[in-house]
Amino acid sequence: MAKRTEFEHEMLREIYEQPEALRRTLALYLAGGELKQEMATLLAGWANRRGEILIAASGSSRHSGLFGETLLEDLCGLAVDVEYASEYCYRGASCDPRHPAVLVLSQSGETGDTLAALQEARRRGEKTLAITNSPASTMAHLADVSMPLAAGVEKAVPATKSFTCQLAALYVLALYEGVRLKQIGKRELAGHIARLRQAPDALDAQLERWSSQAQALAGKFRDAATFLYLGRGIHYAIAREGALKMKEASYVHAEGYPAGELKHGPNALVSERVPLVVLATVDRGVEASLLRYEKTLQLLRELKAQSARVIAIANADDEEIGGLAGDCIPVEPASEYLLPIFEVVPLQLFAYYMAVERGVNVDKPRNLTKAVLEA
C-alpha cells in the first residue's frame, strides 16, 4: 500500500489498495514465473472449438470486457464479441449454431442482468466462465469455470480496485488461452508474467503523484459541464471507464469515444466548458501502438489549433504531448497491455476529487447501488 494511511472516503482508500489487490489476484493464477496448471486444466474444457467468445457484462465490468476483447483477439487470435448483459437475453439467438463460450464479468457476482445472461447461456448449452470478486456468489457457482478476484471487500459504489483486478484477471486468461492455442511461446509468456508481476510496485510508486495532480486538476476543472474522454484501441475501454467514473462519482456528465470518432459529431460540443481527456500513452516497441500514438498526436495538434482544453495521460518521458495539451498526467512507460491499468487509476482519482470539489457523497452516489438487480 502507498504511504498514505488515512482516507476521507472509502473510494480513496480502495484506490490506494489497488497495488495489494493486484498482488493477491495475480497470486491466484501465477506461481513464480509460470501459470498455475490447475487453472489451465479447468479452462481447457471451457473454450469454443471455433475460437468464439461472447463477453456479457454491465457498467464498469463491460468496460473491462472491452479490454479483454482486444487482449484475447491480439494475443490468442480468438473472435470476441462484447454484449451488454441487459441486452443479451433479448437477441433472439436461441437457435444460433455457433454456441460461443460465454464469459460473464461482475464485481458482486449477483448483478441481475449479468446473472440472467449467464442463466440464458446455460439454457442454450454454451460453456460459461465467470470472473467475479466473490467466489461464493451465484455466478461463481453457476458457471462451468470460476475465476475469482482477490480485490477484497469494496464498500464504495464506484468500482476501482475490482476493475483493475478484472483487467489483471483478463490478462492472465489471455495468457492461459494463448498457451493452450500455441499462440504464446515460453519466452513470450515469461515476459508477460514478469511485467504483470512488476505492475503492482509500479502502480504503488506513482499513486501519490497522481493523487496530487488529480486534486489540482479537479480544482481547475470543477465548473466543467461535460467531459469527452478519448482513447484508441485497447485504451478506448479506459476512456469509457474514465467517463463512467466521472458521471457516477461526481455527477458531471462525461462520454467516452474512440479518438478517431471525435470529428464525426462530438467535436461540435468542444468548448471552454467541455474539455477533453485524451489517452496518449504509447508502447514504442509495438508498431500498432506507435501508429495509434501518431494519430493521437495529430488529433492533439488539431485540438490545440481550435483552443480546446485538454488533459492528456501520456508517458512520463514524452517530450511532445506537453506542448500540445494544456495539462498532462504522466505515467511511467509500460507495455501496451499493461498501460490501461496505469491509465485508469489517475482517472479514478480525478473523478474522486471532482466529487469532493462538488460536495458529492462519493461512496454512495444517488440512485446507485453496488449490486444492480435485473433491469
Explain what the structure shows.
The protein is an alpha/beta fold and 375 residues long. The strands form three sheets. The chain has a five-stranded parallel β-sheet, sandwiched between helices. Strands 9-8-10-11-12 form a five-stranded parallel β-sheet, sandwiched between helices. Helix 6 links the parallel strand 5 and strand 6. Helix 4 runs parallel beside helix 8, helix 4 packs antiparallel against helix 10 and helix 9 runs parallel beside helix 12. The longest helix has 36 residues. The chain starts with 9 loop residues before the first helix and ends in an 18-residue tail after the last helix. The mean pLDDT is 93.
- State which percent range the strand residues make up: 15-25%
Oligomer: single chain
Mean pLDDT: 93
* Count of separate structural domains: 2
Order of helices and strands: HHEEHEHEHEHEHEHHEHEEHEEH
- Cross-sheet strand order for the largest sheet: 4-3-5-6-7
